[in-house]
Amino acid sequence: GRIITRCENVRTLSMPRSRGRMLRRPRGAALAACALAAALGVSGCTAAAAADQQPSIQATGAYVPLPVSPGTTYAYLAIRNYTSTPDRLVSARTSVGGRVALRAPAAGSGQMRTVPSIVVPPNSVLRLVPDGPHLLITGAGPMRNGKTFTLTLVFSRGSRVPVTALVTNPQDTQGSNYSMN
């Protein structure tokens, strides 16, 4: 079948038939199909109608190890920059309170240091990982294994990107909820 990229301009929905002929459906059916796809979140119809493109920055796979000391842990995730220009992660906040510091390895020492921003290169994925750039969360409220909370990432070009973070237990030997990016 054909993928519809702009719902607002749909007049008919064409679908291949068994012998290569095209079946034409009336405009109402096409609009109903588009509305259903948007409601189910399978199609980019609402995003396409609003922005006519995918988001410039996307965050996925966020997880936070269960705090060893109360209120202090780290956040790891992947950030995808879909644009041809670099962007910078300049801050973050959590729905469980506390402060979030941006951390990165110090040149040559192997130690981590707090940095004012983390560069997200153009057209690439940046992984925030234990031995690379990541987020340090301090003073947060209680976190329990298997529960989630929201991290909101703020970028220099104005984007605010929420991502759901899963609290994981690194001691879980069965690996039921602990994953590395």
Structural class based on helices, strands and sheet pairing = mainly beta
Estimate the strand proportion. 35-45%
The parts where pLDDT drops under 50 for at least 5 residues are: 1-51
> How would a crystallographer describe the biggest sheet?
10 strands, mixed
Q: Rough shape?
A: globular
Mean pLDDT across every amino acid position: 76
**Radius of gyration over alpha carbons?**
21 Å
- Number of helical runs? 2
* Percent helix range: 10-25%
Number of strands: 12
SSE order in H/E notation?
Answer: EEHHEEEEEEEEEE
Say what oligomer this is: single chain
N→C terminal distance: 34 Å
What does this structure look like?
With 181 residues, this protein is mainly β. The protein has helices spanning 27-40, 45-51, and strands spanning 13-16, 22-25, 57-65, 72-81, 87-94, 99-105, 112-114, 118-120, 124-128, 134-138, 148-155, 160-168. Strands 3, 4, 5, 6, 7, 8, 9, 10, 11 and 12 form a 10-stranded mixed β-sheet that branches. The chain is globular and about 40 Å long. It starts with 12 loop residues before the first strand and ends in a 13-residue tail after the last strand.
Keywords for this entry:
mainly beta, two-stranded antiparallel ribbon, 181 residues, disordered N terminus
Q: Brief description of this entry?
A:
With about 180 residues, the chain is mainly beta.
